[in-house]
Amino acid sequence: MKTVATKNAQILAIDAGGTMTDTFIIDENGDFVVGKAQSTPEDESVGLLNSARDALTYWNTTVEEEFPKLLAGVYSGTAMLNRLVSRKGRRVGLIVNKGMEDFHRMGRAIQAYLGYSYSDRLHLNTHRYDPPLVPRELTRGVTERVDLFGNVVIPLYEHEVAPVVEDLLERDVEAIVISLLHSYKYPAHERKVRDIVKETMKRLGKEVPVFASVDYYPVRKESHRTNTTIIEAYAADPSRETLQKIDSRLKDHGSKFDLRVMASHGGTISTQANELARTLVSGPIGGVIGAKYLGEKLGIPNIACSDIGGTSFDMALITQGDLSINTSPDMARLVLSLPLVAMDTVGAGAGSYVRIDPNFKSLTLGPDSAGSRVGVCYPEGGVETVTVSDCHVVLGLINPDNFLGGEVKLYPERAYEAVKKQVAEPLGLSVEDAAYGVIDLLESQLRNYLESMILGKGYSPSQYVCFSYGGGGPLHTAGYTKGLGFEDVLVPAWAAGFSAFGCGAADFEYRYDKTLDINVNDGARDEVKFKAGKELQGAWDELMEKVAAEFEKNQFKRKDVDFRLYFRMQYQGQLNDLEIEAPIASFKGLDDWDALVTAFDDTYTRVYAKAARSPELGYSITGAIVRGIVEVAKPRIPEEPLSSETPPKEAFLGMRNVYWKGEWIVADIWEMEKLKPGNKINSFAILESPATTFVIPPGFETFLDQHRIFHLKEL
Ligand code: AMP
């Protein structure tokens, strides 16, 4: 990091994790510094300010000096997710259809085995139900019924609502959620219940927040919709207070921007946003958005993102500059209906536990991990089971005196003893071979995951550039990309802070979805197609209103917003629909219908196969989507002149013995920050940085380009 007296900090991106709070501060030239501090869950602003102070010491400046100059600040963190997972949210009352009071805790059955390995999914005796977010005794039914076409079959028994509210309030609920069957098709009943709930509370003089699912997530699948609306009441609304407190603490230190939060759809939203549950998962999304942004700047349209942290390996694909979005994802073992950047996650990270299967005497990795407690090599963590990190230390891949820049001291002899006892002796191997076997197994597993994710989507690695990041990514980049034939493999020098960088690069963006059910048969008359298009346009108009209303909260006018229209379509009767950007600005006539259908047919051909196209079945429009984007300041990608291929002497830290493929070999150790653009390293080397380690094994070479991005090449 450079040490300069005057800087103009412009963007502050925060990744408040369970143990560490990372800050990423970017100046007007795209230079950036990364700060780390212990997280302070009781008041996150303390850890955040400490972390920002730590970052700014690299520029010899202070929070008081720089905060007033900041143009934007983006937060991502795990506080809301923790509230949910540890079931520490509000006491919520739930109103559903009479007779349906148990569906929430049944969790569509699938929730009992979400997150399980394939073998555990098959064995019913391992399935486990988590406590429901709303217990059965706080769930009440009211009589009404709307069928799947949106017809009222039984009218709403309005007189049943007030007694239910009185009863729930007597039980001290802190919020009330209403979710009725098929309300996305016929919202009037749910809205009526909502109004009666509010009137009753007023009459009783005891008011708590009310959440009707149609006001938040007007989409199909009642378990998903109900869970998501409950999270809004249970965890998101209470977190709003926390976020606004952080915002005001930043303002106390001179900041003038309104804090934004990274959301699951890949954009950032205001702390005042209606649907705040979208910020439940933010860290890993940041990395994908960072890769997309970097790809746009560098002209790379197809990217395979790979992120290794302490606990997991996260993969995502960016194809032709676009992310794919999953609209019914699961998180924290709950099925949800909010748009989430599609990612594949496996529980294999640098902190994963290593065990010997007692039956097969084979190595198993994860899926649980020591996370921030590193491994046996870190006595303060209190971990007793060997982790992947212990193997890194035994092999000499990680410098035990430079973990988090030396803040966390690791003890190689502890790692050695543990690997010996728990892995090497049971397998009859030397300690080094056992540790090497663990790394080899991890990398071959990751390679298989990555390859199958790409092949499974109908693409090939040769069409993609692989981006590798996260603190643990560069340790294994060579291992998990070997032989896959990627077009290129990139490791940004700021790999360890890449997720926070992505948060800083994310657009200010709202996205709203609405379920539609519009069917147009093969050979339908023109009037039918016209009516279908008009209905889609009606949904877009409604969603544009919602987006505009959100931006207004931050004083942005409609004209400032770049609206993008999308639709979901499928061949009638098929199971999967596709999300497609509309090739039209608005629906005006039959030509527009043809354009929509052609865009769908083309995408379908790309994703599946031309032969699978089935226009004879007719088309269904299953959803309307509107994204609204407002331009905000973003980080600039570093740009430095290229120097010679030979690295500068001052970057050389010495040599270290590293165990590699059955023998100890001497590796050159370089300080990553001191390498210059243009430098090439083509011998066995390890590049060290305060929060990441990049391994260049024999048979590979790396080149640092003018953007401070390493290119890894297999020789
Ligand atoms: P992340 O969760 O993305 O910060 O990644 C954490 C992982 O980075 C750790 O589990 C380590 O295996 C890996 N790592 C590699 N080099 C370092 C380093 N110098 N300091 C801390 N972590 C490192």
Automatic annotation (TrEMBL):
<dbReference type="InterPro" id="IPR008040">
    <property type="entry name" value="Hydant_A_N"/>
</dbReference>
<dbReference type="Pfam" id="PF05378">
    <property type="entry name" value="Hydant_A_N"/>
</dbReference>
<dbReference type="InterPro" id="IPR049517">
    <property type="entry name" value="ACX-like_C"/>
</dbReference>
<dbReference type="InterPro" id="IPR002821">
    <property type="entry name" value="Hydantoinase_A"/>
</dbReference>
<dbReference type="GO" id="GO:0018710">
    <property type="term" value="F:acetone carboxylase activity"/>
</dbReference>
<dbReference type="Pfam" id="PF01968">
    <property type="entry name" value="Hydantoinase_A"/>
</dbReference>
<dbReference type="GO" id="GO:0006749">
    <property type="term" value="P:glutathione metabolic process"/>
</dbReference>
<feature type="domain" description="Acetophenone carboxylase-like C-terminal">
    <location>
        <begin position="524"/>
        <end position="714"/>
    </location>
</feature>
<dbReference type="InterPro" id="IPR045079">
    <property type="entry name" value="Oxoprolinase-like"/>
</dbReference>
<keyword id="KW-0436">Ligase</keyword>
<dbReference type="Pfam" id="PF19278">
    <property type="entry name" value="Hydant_A_C"/>
</dbReference>
<protein>
    <submittedName>
        <fullName>Acetone carboxylase beta subunit</fullName>
        <ecNumber>6.4.1.6</ecNumber>
    </submittedName>
</protein>
<feature type="domain" description="Hydantoinase A/oxoprolinase">
    <location>
        <begin position="225"/>
        <end position="511"/>
    </location>
</feature>
<dbReference type="GO" id="GO:0017168">
    <property type="term" value="F:5-oxoprolinase (ATP-hydrolyzing) activity"/>
</dbReference>
<feature type="domain" description="Hydantoinase/oxoprolinase N-terminal">
    <location>
        <begin position="12"/>
        <end position="200"/>
    </location>
</feature>
<dbReference type="GO" id="GO:0005829">
    <property type="term" value="C:cytosol"/>
</dbReference>
<dbReference type="InterPro" id="IPR043129">
    <property type="entry name" value="ATPase_NBD"/>
</dbReference>
